[in-house]
Specification:
By secondary structure, this protein is an alpha/beta fold. It has a single domain, classed as 3-Layer(aba) Sandwich (Rossmann fold), CATH 3.40.50.150. It has nine helices and eight strands. Strands 1, 2, 3, 4, 5, 6, 7 and 8 form an eight-stranded mixed sheet that branches. Helix 1 crosses helix 7, helix 4 crosses helix 6 and helix 5 packs across helix 9. The model has no long low-confidence stretch (mean pLDDT 93).
Length: 268
Amino acid sequence: MSDSDYVHGYSDRENLRLADQANVLGSLLHHDTRYPAGSIILECGCGTGAQTVFLASGSPGARIVSLDLALGAVRQARGRIRDTGYANVSFQNADIFHLPFLDGAFDHLFVCFVLEHLLDPVRALRSLMRVLTPGGSITVIEGDHGSWYSHPQTREASRAVQCLIEAQTRLGGDPLIGRHLYPLLLEAGFRDVGVTPRMVYVDASRPDLVEGFSRKTFIAMVEGVRERVLSMGLVDSDGWEKGIADLYRATEPDGTFCYTFFKARAVR
């Protein structure tokens, strides 16, 4: 995956969105991710380190190696971890398809919001399997943009989200990958595959999620592809602005949002 293939881009706004997403969803996605003291973990596709913080805090006795293809993201991740004071993480700039590690070098693997952007996720999983010790585990977390719905939900709002899906698909990604994790892991050769849905439901009784998820995570993600979808001719500017406005309408006191993430665990 090249920088231009990442549908969300690498803007400061996107980095802030990723941090907001990690913070608001930390308990939902990471409460059951814990690794034994002394184990060696590879986090592949760490981005700017938003998820790395949860790995480091949840498994303080483990040694974590976090890598990403984007050198700028690695620098930001290193700074983020340094600011938190955790000392159990090291960083590398590397490609998931050409991992610079020996066979079986890691006890466990962690991959979060990465496979959706890859043209060949099975090949990536097989590359990861090579550096995993026999009997070691892989944890994969992905969203599924097709799982979203809201109330009220207009045709224009649905079209805005569909534009994100179509743009990511054209770039070779899989915006519906959450529902595909089980067969992908099996095809890659992993065993004992288990997948659990992690649903985020939002209404006005959960104001932290209205702000942190609906507005700052989901709608911000859709808004972030505006220039790309307009340049692709997927929608005109009036239709786009109406769709975004209608998404925000669902964050008002009588509105609701719902989205499902999927967390998979398997063994080599």
